[in-house]
Design brief:
Chain lengths: 700, 147
C-alpha cells in the first residue's frame, strides 16, 4: 500500500503518473529502436546501392571496351554506342558514388583513384578510336595491343573490389548493429508492456480496494445515521427541502421517509415561528455562520409540540458552494418537563418558605446565616438584610451562645450531633432583646463539601402559655377527682353505717318489743326498714356509676356472646319460675373493657328480664346489626316497652319511666350503660313502643 | 368494758351502732361471750404490741379471729392489718375485714396486706346478722389455728 497519509485521489494520481511515465519511456525506447532499425536498413540499402553502382560502372566500362574493340576490328561505328553511353553514365555514376560515400573518407580516396583510372581508360578509348579512324585497323590494333588497356581494367577492378569489400564489411557491421538494436527494441517493448500491465493491475487492485473500503465505510455511515434513534439526522437542500431522513427523525417527528422526502422543512416549525420567518432565518444563519444551534418548540407530524435541541450545519463542497444543510435534532421534551417541574418545585418550595408562619433559616458551616425567611423576620423582629452573614448567636440569649458555638464546632469536627434531627425547645432573642420560648428543628446537609444547616423555628409562646394553663387545669382536675374519690369513699362508708343502724335497730325493735307494738307500729317499722334498704341500693348504684367514670379502661378481646349467655344464666337462676327465651347471637367479639362490658350486659339484659316480668313466655334477644357507623349490638325484648316521647329521659341518672311499685329499680342502670358506651367512643339509643317491647342498641 | 377470761374474737370497730349490731348478731348464735372491742386502730395495736399493762396479753391470750373495720380513728384499718401481718408473733392470726367499703382499691389493698377474708357489711340487718354470725361460726368454731 502507498503511504496512508495520502488521499485516494493523490494516490491514484501518483499511481497513474508512474504508469504513464513508464509507458512513455517504453514508447520512446521503442521509437528510438525503430528509428535505429530504419536507419540501419537504409544503410544496408546504401551499401547495396554502392555495390550496384560499382558493378554497373564496371560493366559499363567492360561494355565500352568491348564496343571499342568491335569498332577497331570492324570500323563500324555502331560498335561505339556502349562507349558513348558509358562516357555519359560513368561520370554520373561516379558522382553518385561520391555522394553515397561522402561520409566515408576511405571510399572517397578510392573514388579519386577510380575517377583517375576511369578517366584514363576513357582517354585511351578516345585515342584508340581516333587511331582507328585515322590509322586504320592495323594502327588501331597496334595501339590496342601496345596500350596498357588490360592493366587499367585490372586496376579499376581492384579498386572496385576494394570498395565493394569495404561496403560489404560495413554492411556486415551494420547488420549486427541493426539486429542488436532490434532485439533491444523488442525487449524494451515487452518490458514496458509488462510493467505497464503490472502497474495497471496494481492500480486497479488499489483503486478497487479503496473503492470497496469506501463503499463499506459509506454503508456503515449510512447504517449508523439511518439507525440512530435518539437523534433526528437529516439533510435539506439549500432551499430547505428534505433530502434524507433517518430512523431517529422518523421516531421523533413521526414522518416515514416517503412522506417527508422532498417536503419543505418549514413544516417542522410552529405556526408562529413560520409566521416570523424562522425557517429561512435559521438556514440563513447556518449558511452564514457555518453552524446554527437553538432550543425551541418544534412540531411532530401529529401536530404535537416537542422541545427540540437543533443543530444545523451548512454543507459545502471544496469550492465552497452550498450543497445543503445537515440537521441534527434531539427531543428534549422530557428534560424540559423535568426542568419545568424542578422550577415549579423550586417555586413551590420558595413560596412555602416565604409564606410559612414558622421561621425558616439556613446557615453555613461557620454558623453564619445564609437564608432568613419572612416568618423568621416576623418572629425575631429582624430583617433578612440585618442578619445575613451574621452568626446564629445573634438570635440567641447570651446564656445559650457558648453551648451553641461548642456544639457547632463539635459537629463540624466530628459529625457528632445532639440537636440535629430532633425537635428541641430553646429560647430565642428578638431584636429588642426580649426572650421567647421556641421550638427548633435542625437539619444538616452537605453543600458540596461544606456542611450547612437548616433550622425551622416556631415561636411557642402561646403554646407554652396554653401548656401552663393546661397543667393548671389538669392539677385542678386531679384535685377535684381526689376530692370526688374521698367523697365517694365517705358516701360508701359513712352513709351506709347509719342506714345499717336504722335497719338494724328497727329489726331489734321488732324482735325485742314485738308484743308491745300493735300491727300499725310493726308496719311502720317495716316501712322504715324498706326505706333504709332502698337508700342503700341507691347508694350502691351511685357508687357503681361513679366507679364506671373513674376507673381506667382496660381494653382486651371480649366475647359479648359468652358474657350475655353467662348473664342470662344468672338471671334465670335468680328466678327459676320465670319462662324467658334467650336468643344470643354467637361469637360477637369486640375490643373493650371486659369488666365494663359485663356491667353493660347485666344492665341491659337485667332490664329486659325485669320489663318482661308480665310476659310468659318472654323473649329476649342479643345480636348485632349493621348501621351507618358499622356494627350496632342490641338487646331486644317483648316486654312493657315505653313511649318514645320519653326516650330523651331514658339515659339520665335517677330517671324512671315506670313506677317503682310496678318495676323496681333506681334509674341508674341506663345512665351507667351510657357512660360506659361513651367511654368506649360509642353510642347508645333505644327504640320502643308501650307494651310492644324495647330494643337497646349500642356501638363501640 | 368487760374482762373476759378468754378472747375469741377481737372486734376493731369505732361505730357503737355497728358494734352493738355485731354483738347482737353474734349473741343470737351464742358466740359473743369471749369478745373484746377495740374502738380505734391504736387500741387494736396496743392489744398486741402496746407498752402498757394488758393482763389478757400477759396471760397469753390470743384471739381466734380479728374482725377489722377499715375506716378507723387514729390508725386506720389497713395500717393495723399491715402491722399484724408483718410481725412474726401475729402473722398467723386470721384477720377478717368487715367494712362498709365496697371500693376496689380497698379490697385489693386488704388482700395484698394479707387479709384472710373481706366482708362488706350489708345494710339489711338480716343479711348483716347472717354475715357476722357466719364469720363467727366459721373462724371461731370451725377453723383450726396453730398452737
Amino acid at each position: 500500500m502507498i503511504g496512508t497519509g495520502l488521499s485516494l485521489e493523490r494516490r491514484i494520481q501518483i499511481g497513474f503518473g508512474i504508469a504513464v511515465a513508464i509507458i512513455v519511456a517504453v514508447g520512446a525506447a521503442a521509437l528510438r529502436s525503430t528509428e535505429a532499425t530504419v536507419s540501419s536498413a537504409q544503410w544496408v540499402a546504401h551499401t547495396l546501392q554502392v555495390r550496384a553502382e560499382l558493378e554497373a560502372g564496371f560493366a559499363d566500362l567492360i561494355e565500352a571496351e568491348t564496343g571499342v574493340r568491335g569498332y577497331v576490328i570492324t570500323g563500324d561505328t555502331t560498335y561505339l554506342a556502349p562507349y558513348h553511353s558509358a562516357r555519359a553514365t560513368l561520370n554520373s555514376r561516379l558522382a553518385g558514388l561520391r555522394a553515397l560515400t561522402a561520409d566515408n573518407p576511405a571510399q572517397q580516396r578510392r573514388l579519386d583513384s577510380l575517377d583517375t583510372l576511369v578517366a584514363t581508360r576513357l582517354e585511351r578509348f578516345q585515342w584508340t578510336i581516333e587511331t582507328r579512324r585515322t590509322g586504320g585497323p592495323a594502327a588501331a590494333a597496334r595501339a590496342v595491343s601496345g596500350g596498357r588497356g588490360k592493366e587499367l581494367i585490372r586496376l579499376v577492378h581492384d579498386v572496385i573490389t576494394q570498395m565493394e569489400e569495404d561496403e560489404g564489411r560495413l554492411l556486415a557491421q551494420r547488420s549486427v548493429t541493426l539486429q542488436a538494436k532490434a532485439r533491444l527494441a523488442r525487449l524494451a517493448a515487452w518490458t514496458g508492456a509488462l510493467v505497464a500491465l503490472a502497474l495497471a493491475g496494481l492500480a486497479s487492485v488499489l483503486v478497487g480496494r479503496e473503492m470497496a473500503g469506501r463503499r463499506v465505510a459509506e454503508e456503515r455511515l449510512r447504517l449508523l445515521v439511518g439507525s440512530v434513534r435518539d437523534y433526528a439526522i437529516y439533510m435539506v437542500d439549500p432551499a430547505g427541502y428534505v433530502k434524507s431522513w433517518n430512523a431517529g427523525a422518523e421516531r421523533i417527528k413521526g414522518y416515514a421517509p416517503p412522506e417527508i422526502l422532498g417536503q419543505h422543512f418549514a413544516r417542522f416549525f410552529t405556526p408562529e415561528d413560520v409566521a416570523a420567518g424562522r425557517p429561512a432565518a435559521v438556514l440563513h444563519a447556518a449558511a452564514t455562520e457555518g453552524r446554527y444551534e437553538e432550543e425551541n418548540w418544534r412540531l411532530r407530524k401529529d401536530g404535537s409540540r416537542f422541545w427540540a435541541d437543533v443543530v444545523i450545519t451548512a454543507v459545502r463542497d471544496e469550492r465552497g458552494a452550498l450543497l445543503g444543510f445537515a440537521k441534527v435534532t434531539r427531543d428534549l421534551t422530557e428534560r424540559k418537563r423535568a426542568e419545568q417541574a424542578l422550577r415549579a418545585s423550586e417555586e413551590r418550595f420558595r413560596i412555602l418558605a416565604v409564606t410559612a408562619n414558622d421561621a425558616i433559616l439556613s446557615a453555613d458551616a461557620r454558623g453564619h446565616i445564609t437564608y432568613f425567611n419572612p416568618g423568621a423576620e416576623r418572629i425575631f423582629g429582624l430583617t433578612s438584610d440585618e442578619v445575613i452573614d451574621r452568626p446564629l448567636t445573634t438570635l440567641m440569649p447570651e446564656r445559650f451562645r457558648e453551648a451553641h458555638r461548642a456544639g457547632l464546632a463539635r459537629y463540624v469536627a466530628t459529625g457528632e450531633a445532639r440537636v440535629i434531627g430532633k425537635t428541641v425547645e430553646l429560647a430565642g432573642r428578638r431584636k429588642d432583646g426580649t426572650e421567647f420560648p421556641l421550638e427548633l428543628s435542625l437539619a444538616t446537609w452537605k453543600h458540596g463539601s461544606e456542611v450547612a444547616f437548616t433550622a425551622i423555628i416556631r415561636d411557642i409562646t402561646a403554646r407554652k402559655e396554653g401548656e401552663d394553663q393546661r397543667r393548671r387545669y389538669a392539677a385542678q382536675l386531679e384535685a377535684a377527682n381526689k376530692e370526688l374519690e374521698a367523697f365517694s369513699y365517705s358516701v360508701s362508708h359513712d352513709l351506709r353505717a347509719p342506714l345499717r343502724g336504722i335497719d338494724g335497730f328497727s329489726q331489734a325493735l321488732l324482735e325485742d318489743y314485738h308484743e308491745r307494738l300493735d300491727d300499725t307500729g310493726r308496719d311502720f317499722l317495716q316501712r322504715v326498714r324498706a326505706g333504709s334498704q332502698r337508700m342503700a341500693t341507691l347508694i350502691d348504684d351511685l357508687l357503681s356509676l361513679s366507679r364506671v367514670t373513674r376507673s381506667e379502661l382496660q381494653l382486651a378481646e371480649v366475647n359479648l356472646s359468652t358474657l350475655a349467655a353467662a348473664t342470662a344464666a344468672e338471671l334465670q337462676k335468680s328466678d327459676p319460675t320465670r319462662a324467658v327465651m334467650f336468643s344470643i347471637a354467637p361469637d360477637l367479639v369486640v375490643r373493650a373493657d371486659p369488666g365494663l362490658m359485663r356491667i353493660v350486659l347485666q344492665n341491659l339484659l337485667g332490664n329486659a328480664w325485669k320489663f318482661t316480668a308480665k310476659r310468659s313466655p318472654a323473649h329476649v334477644e342479643f345480636g348485632v346489626t349493621a348501621n351507618d357507623n358499622g356494627r350496632a349490638y342490641f338487646v331486644r325484648d317483648d316486654g312493657a316497652g315505653f313511649d318514645m316521647a320519653y326516650a330523651a329521659k331514658l339515659f339520665g341518672a335517677f330517671q324512671r319511666l315506670h313506677a317503682a311499685a310496678e318495676f323496681p329499680g333506681t334509674g341508674i342502670g341506663l345512665a351507667t350503660v351510657q357512660r360506659i358506651v361513651h367511654r368506649h367512643g360509642g353510642q347508645v339509643w333505644a327504640e320502643a313502643a308501650p307494651e310492644r317491647g324495647a330494643t337497646f342498641y349500642f356501638t363501640l | 368494758m368487760n374482762f373476759p377470761n378468754e378472747v375469741e374474737i377481737l372486734l376493731v370497730e369505732d361505730n357503737p351502732q355497728d358494734e352493738e349490731l355485731t354483738l347482737r348478731a353474734l349473741k343470737e348464735r351464742n358466740i359473743a361471750n369471749q369478745l373484746f372491742v377495740a374502738r380505734d386502730g391504736a387500741e387494736a395495736l396496743d392489744f398486741f404490741f402496746g407498752e402498757g399493762s394488758h393482763p389478757w396479753r400477759e396471760i397469753g391470750i390470743v384471739p381466734r379471729v380479728i374482725l377489722l373495720d377499715l375506716k378507723l380513728p387514729k390508725v386506720d384499718g389497713l395500717e393495723v392489718l399491715r402491722r399484724l401481718k408483718t410481725d412474726e408473733r401475729t402473722r398467723a392470726l386470721p384477720v377478717v375485714v368487715l367494712t362498709s367499703s365496697r371500693e376496689e382499691p380497698d379490697i385489693a389493698a386488704a388482700y395484698r396486706l394479707g387479709a384472710n377474708s373481706y366482708i362488706v357489711k350489708p345494710v339489711d340487718f338480716e343479711s348483716f346478722a347472717r354475715a357476722v354470725s357466719d364469720v363467727g361460726l366459721y373462724w371461731v368454731l370451725l377453723n383450726e389455728l396453730p398452737r
